[in-house]
Amino acid sequence: MKICSPMQLTASSRVLEHNRRWYWVVSASMCISLRDSKPVLLHDYLDSMMQAMDDPPLLDMGMPKPFTEWLLSGRFCAADNQMVTAGKTRVKLADQEKSLNVFGDRQWTAGLPSSPQPFVAMPLRYSYSYGGQNYDLNPAGKGFQTKELPNIELLSETTESAKKRYTPAGYSPLPVHCPQRAKYQGTYDKRYMENYFPGYPQDMDWRLFMSAPDDQWFSGFLRGNEAYQLEGLSPRLPQIKGNLPGLVPRCVIRQRADDNGGYQLADISLNLDTVWFFPEAVSGSGSSQSAEDGVVQLIWRGVTEACSDDAEEISHVLLGYEYAENPQPAAHYRNALLRRIENPSPLEDSLNTKDLIPPDHKTALQMLTEDVQGAAGGGKNAFSENMQRKTAAVNEEIKKHLSEQIEDAKKRIDQADIAADKKADLIASLDAAPAVQEPDPMLSVLDKLLPGVASGSSSIDFSEFTFEKMDSVIREIDDLAEARKRAVITDVNPQIKRSFEDILRQMDRGDEAVSATGSAVEPQHRKALLQRLESLSAEEQSATPQRTELPRLNEQEIRRQLIAADAELIKARQAVHQQSANPMLAGSESLSAVKARLLALEERLKGDVADTLSQLRDQFMSGYVLSAHFGADGLSPHSDDAERRQQLMRCVNTSAALSRQDWACLDLSGCKLDGLDFSGCLMEQVNLRGASCVGTNFTGAVLARADLSGADLTDAVLDGSNIGSAICHGTRFVRCSVKNTILSKADLFQAIFDSATIVMPDALETSLYGVSFRNASVRGWAFLEVTIEGCVFEQAELETCSFVHSSLINSRFNGAVMPSSVWVGCRLEGVDFTSADMSRNCFVSSDEDFVFKQLNFTDAVLNMANLQNIRFEKAVFANARLEYTNFSGAALKSALFDGCRSVSARFQKADLSHASFNRSDLMESIMTRARLTDTNFRGANMYGTDFIQAIVKGSDFSGANLDATVLRDWRPS
After folding, report:
1. Which residues lie below 8 Å from residue 284, measured CB to CB, with a gap of 6+?
2. Mind listing the pLDDT tens digit for each residue in 765-795?
3. Is 593 in a helix, a strand, or coil?
4. Is 610 exposed, middle or buried (0-12, 13-18, 19+ CB in 10 A)?
5. Of 433, 407, 398, whose CA–CA distance to 532 is shortest?
6. Most buried by CB count within 10 Å: which residue of 396, 500, 815, 882?
7. Domain spans of the chain?
8. 56 and 140 Cβ atoms separated by less than 8 Å
9. Which CATH number is associated with domain 631-766?
10. In Å, how far from its chain's centre is CA 515?
11. What is the 8-class DSSP label of residue 633?
12. What is the pTM of this model?
């Protein structure tokens, strides 16, 4: 089942069974800012929303509710953050209203409540409400058989007596097992087991799924445009009020219509059944939205009957949203779904969903790019700036090439023995050569592809974004750059050639001016002109740009311009000049005063210029460090590399400062550079082969295309540096700090990162062959389309890492701690995960024919991992911990699970043919509709295992514990 929806809508689905029938339930959730009633992205606010909930958090169950309820998770907040001893909160939604009294900490003293302690804020959780360990309505609370009194009370109930029982007060969800909800769960008896198991009982009341206290229920469903008012729930605003936005989601599904492969589309109506306020939710994205917006989460639900317990007949789901008063026709959303089925692009469908949202709403990509721009401090759009920088670089290269060609031609014309007036004519014709056009047509073409690139607007129009269009932009600018170079060469070179040809003809004719001098044409001049003509012709055909200098700031020119433009300095110099020219003022106090003023201004300006140059250099470095590895090898910036190397070694020997300097292209192979500070240095193409850089600081340095083969960087710091496109064969990065470092395009063959700390590296187009990460701490590495072969991650800690479309071959993760890792479309062959902690890992593969080979998970921990529909045939899970692990639909032929602990694991519809579970703990696991052909369960604990509709043939259950096992409806193969 594939779900297409804008990122503003969080979609989920599940199947429930009731009265021996299955129902597919779809939930659509949207977060709305309480500041402006506009949709925001859930992931921006999720952390603060979770923190506002009770402990443990009670999330939405995704089950249908018979009518709307409202919830609130937050705190009472005293006005102006002033200390108070008591306060009151109030929530009003539509025609419903509820208030809570809030008190500081109190105790029973001589049978009476003590005076409350002052406080500024109080969490509105049930642990602060009336209850106690032996009070069924709220075991987490206080006041019942405890010395402490509750902090939160209903407006209608004031705690006055320790002997009286009170209603737990709150706005947040109640747990499903509490008596207030459990009374609706229905009857679980023998009749249920015989007729309705494993679904819900026939007499189950749908109010079971209402999680709010019943005084927060409506009698029907809200429309979604109702007014609300919150009081005492924000430290900034005593009162928050507004209206729900009046948005409604639309849902279309594609489901199998018959057994002959036919499909049909159906619309699913959705009801708004949950309104959940989070008044203090803050964005963690650095977005331009207020950091204290607060949000309200709206949840809509739809239900349709299903044909199976996993609704496998539904192949696609599409969700969009619109204003209730301006609905789109059903055909609009149906066509949108059909387009996505015909041209699937999951990421693009989430980011660019202009056809699934109201016309005046921003797509998720527009919202994300604004968040990035806001976090960067505004200004021009970063993508636009990159495109314009690339275009400007092309123009600069062309201008430089053009200038060099013309100056060379002028020099040769000047050396030729021809008449002076003819020289002047030829030089004038060269000065008329075409210049690079402004405004630049390259950007005009790009602006047609992606509006906003040319203007440098802070917001490029991403509303029609596609990855194909982005690729087109990159291809177009490269193609236009090459075309521009060829065009300039084609335009300019013929003029230069004509000038040279004119000179040669005049030499052959014996020009009158030449004859008058009686001079003879020197053979070397003729030969040089002919050679230059040949080279120009060859250049016209190849039009290949020459190797260029590395990008640098021209600090000398900037300094000159800054000094020349200083108005005060100009006036002071003029005053000195005027008074010095007057003999009467020689040696006068007036002249001394203006000279002193000039000196003072020059000294001040030196400092100002130094500060400005420092700022400009920082700006240059901040951008260059991110992109330096994309460039080709450039010319050395030094006039004499050997002399520059000697300067560096003198600094090393005298402990002089090395940081923030230019050491690019130097040969430092074999040098001892331990403990030095190269932070902020330009070191492209530097040769550090075999060098010792133990404990060296390379923070923010640019080492793009450097040769680090065999170098020892143990304990070095590479934070924020760029070693992209570098050669790092066998380089020792032991205990290195590699935070926000660019590794893209680097050759890391047999590099050693043992015990290194690696945080969120940029590692695109990087292959890892024989690399060691033993005991390394790796966080936030997105292994995207990476080949990992013969690598070692033994005892490493990998936190929130993802492996996307990567190949892992003959690598070892023994003892690695890598919870919550994500594996998408990866090839795994010969990978050893022995004793690894892989709890909550998620494996996703879109290729149904792809098989993972020779995988070893012996003694590994995969609790709560998701391995649905994965082909792990012959994989070894001996003695592994697989509690609550989901193997639904997985191909596990001949897999070895001997001695594993698989309590409550799901093997629904899994193929376990010839698999072995010898002496495994499978208590309460689910094997519904699983294929169990010649499967070994000898000595296994299968207490309470569910085998309903499983296919069983030739399996061995000898010595197995089958107590309470549900063996009904076995199907022979």
Report:
1. 44, 45, 47, 48
2. 899 999 999 999 999 999 988 999 999 999 9
3. helix
4. exposed
5. 407
6. 882
7. 2-73+190-375, 76-171, 382-542, 555-628, 631-766
8. no
9. 2.160.20.80
10. 76
11. P
12. 0.59
